[in-house]
Amino acid sequence: MAKAKIVGTGVYAPGTPIDNAELMKLAGIEFDAEKLESKIGIKARHIARLRGIDETSADFAEKAARAALANAEIDPMDVDLFVVGTDTPEYISPATSILVQGRLQKGQRDTGVFDVGASCASFVTAFDAVARMMAGDASLRTAVVVGVYNMPAYIRPGDAFGWSIFADGAGAVVLSRTEDDDPSGYIAGKLVSDGTQWDYVGVYAGGTRKPVTHELLEANTWGLELLQRLPGDRNLKLWPPIIRALCDKGGVPLERVSRFVLTQINKSVIGDVMDALGRPRDAAPTVMDRYGYTGSGCVPMAFHHAVIDGLVRRGDPVVFCASGAGFAVGANLFTY
Q: Count of CB atoms within 10 A of residue 30's CB?
C-alpha cells in the first residue's frame, strides 16, 4: 500500500528576533520575563507587526513552502496539492492555500488546495488528512502542508499575555507518495475533540456570529480574547494517553519512538509529559526559546530544526502531538 513520506522541511519567521526586554519596550507592556523564560521557555520571538514588516499569514506560508521545496529539491510546478493549517488565515475567504498556490504556480493548474482550521492543531490535522489522501490517490504524487501562525495580528494594545506568548512563523513539509517497501512514511493518526469547551480563548470577532462593528471596536472586544483561563494541566492530562493510543494503533512501541514533537506552548509541561510517558525529556525538541509560541506553525518548525540539527534521522519513528483551543487535539505517527 502506498503512503506519504516527508522529503523536505522548511521554516520562515519575519524579521530579526525580539527578546523579552525589547518586547516590553516595543509593545508598551510589563511581564515577568524571568518566569516566562524559566517556566514557559520563551526568550525571543519574531513579530512582523512590531518590526514594521508588511507581511502576514500568506507571506509566511509562501516562504516556508518555498524553503521546504528547495530543501526537497522539488519544483513548485510539480506539486499536486497545497494545504495550509491555520486559525489565523490571510482572509476569511478565499483560503490561504489558494494564495500560496497562486504565488508558487503562477496560475491555473490541476492542483488541489484547501485550508484546515482546528485551532493550534491545524497542522497535525492537515498532515493526517493529506497523508490519507495520498495513500489512496495515485495522482497525488507531491503535496506541501504548511502550518502558519499570525496571532500577533489580532493582539490588542496593552495585552501583556498575548504579546509575551504569541508570535509569527510558519513551518512546512513536502510529502511524496511512496510505496510500502520504503521504510519511511506515514503510519497512523489520532484526533480528539471537545467542542463544548469553545469559549476559553480564541478570535471570536469577524465571523458570522460576531461581525466587526463600530460598537464592537469601541467596546474593545475584538481580536484575541481570553474568556476563561485554560486549565494548567490540560495538556499533561491529554497528551500521554493520546500518544500511547496512537502508538498502539500504529503498532510502534512507545519506547521505539525517537522524537516527540509537541505543541511548543510550555517547556515545563512538555518535560512533565515526557516524564509521564517514561521517556527522556531530551526526546522532545523545543524551539520556543527562539520563536515564542507559533500555534499551528510550531510543530513543523520544531521538526525542521530537529532534522537539520541531526536529532532526527532517516528511519526514526516520530510522533507529532498538538492541542488547539476549542478544543481539538491531533497526533501523527510516522517514520522519517
A: 9
In the structure grid, which three cell numbers stand for residue 131, read together?
A: 497523508
Q: What pairs with residue 84 in β-bridges?
A: 115, 146
- Cα gap 264→266, rounded to integer Å: 6
Residue 305 belongs to domain with CATH number: 3.40.47.10
Tell me the sheet residues that pair with 329.
Answer: 192, 323
pLDDT of residue 53: 98
Verify cis geometry, omega within 30 degrees of 0, for the bond prior to 285. no
Residue numbers of the domain that contains 211: 1-336
Cα separations in angstroms, 31 against 34, 49, 165, 294: 9, 19, 11, 19
Please choose, from the candidates 275, 278, 269, 229, the residue with its C-alpha nearest in 3D space to the C-alpha of residue 286: 269
Peptide bond into 327 cis (omega under 30): yes
Buried b (16+ CB within 10 A) or exposed e, 216-228: eeeeeebbbbeee
Q: What is the pLDDT of residue 230?
A: 81
Q: Give the model's pLDDT for residue 229.
A: 87
How many Cα atoms sit within 13 Å of 181 on the Cβ side?
0
- What is the rounded CA–CA span in Å between residue 316 and residue 320? 13
Q: Which pLDDT belongs to residue 160?
A: 96
Residues 42, 292: contact at Cβ < 8 Å?
A: yes
Return the ∠ at Cα 172 (arms to 154 and 167), rounded to 5°.
25
Instruction: Extract the C-alpha cell encoding 165.
Output: 506568548
Give me the residues of the chain with pLDDT under 50, please. Answer: none
If one counts the domains in the chain, the total is 1
- pLDDT recorded at residue 32: 96
| 3-class DSSP assignment, residue 106 | coil
What angle (nearest 5°) sits at the alpha carbon of residue 286, between those of residues 83 and 24?
Answer: 95
Query: Where does 146-293 have alpha helices with state H?
Result: 160-165, 214-218, 234-250, 267-277, 288-291
pLDDT at 149 (0 to 100): 98
